[in-house]
Amino acid sequence: MSKDAKKILHLKINPSIREYTYQSVESIIYVDIDGYPTVWCAVGHRIKIFDAITWNDEITDMKLENKITCLMHEPINSKIWISVLGNFFYVMDVQTRSFNQKIQIHSDIIICIINFEKIKKVLTASANGEIFVWDANKLEKIDSFNTFQATGKQLKLIDIKTSAKYLLSIYLKQIDIFDEFFQFKETLKFNCGENNELISCACLSHDPDSNEEFLWVGNTANGIVSVWSLKNFELKMRIGVYDCKGYRSFLSVDDLAHNDSIRSLCCVENKFIISGSGSGDGSIAIWRPERIKRKTIAGSINKIWNEF
């Protein structure tokens, strides 16, 4: 590992240390329990909870019947929503670590659970385009829609994201945008062409100077990142990382801390970034982002755009 990487790497932990084989860290969330900071990791069939102050050892190790694919913290009701490899999910109480409910309503594999702050509701989504809207207080389904029926396109849904205004349904070659009433607004199409640029991950950023939101999209083929404005749905720019063969999630350091692809990322109180790796490595790494030396890009995205 280079000196630059060592400067920003705070700690590295292996959640699979007591297992027979290393497992991929599929999801990481930060949970503050009455001022006591914890980090929850989905590792195979298990949820491993770590003390985020000492990082000494696991606080709790819980095993589920299926492989865990997603964790989502719903802080208002102090609940953890857990999807597994199948068409059902669990809701767990943070304090008691007991399961409130096991809900089986989707007809396909659940790919994402997310808070939609605009409407103050929780969304669950499956690969066949089903999206259910939940009242998190009552754990009741209050609405549903299907992205395929809304757009007339039979595409496999790989992820969903929410911005301040929109719901974004992500497929391999395009992203469909819906408003808070789940009305279709726009399609962002990607030129897959000869490079076979299939979408692999996406994240959102906010520019405080212009109060504008941007969508950053990575692909499976190369280091190109496409940046779209959610104000007018225009492609603002495409920027690249040299010698990159595609993205699994967005995190860039000067050297490797993991020996496998990064499967999950989590931000802790704007102080640390936690990365979880695939089963070839099976570890989590804690980073200090304020120590990263920014060599090329600084300031707001509009300032970056004006330089081109």
Automatic annotation (TrEMBL):
GO biological process, alphabetically ordered: mRNA export from nucleus
Alphabetical UniProt keywords: WD repeat
Listed GO CC annotations: THO complex; transcription export complex
Assigned protein family: Belongs to the WD repeat THOC6 family.
Name of this chain's protein: DENN domain-containing 3 isoform X3
Species of origin: Brachionus plicatilis (Marine rotifer)
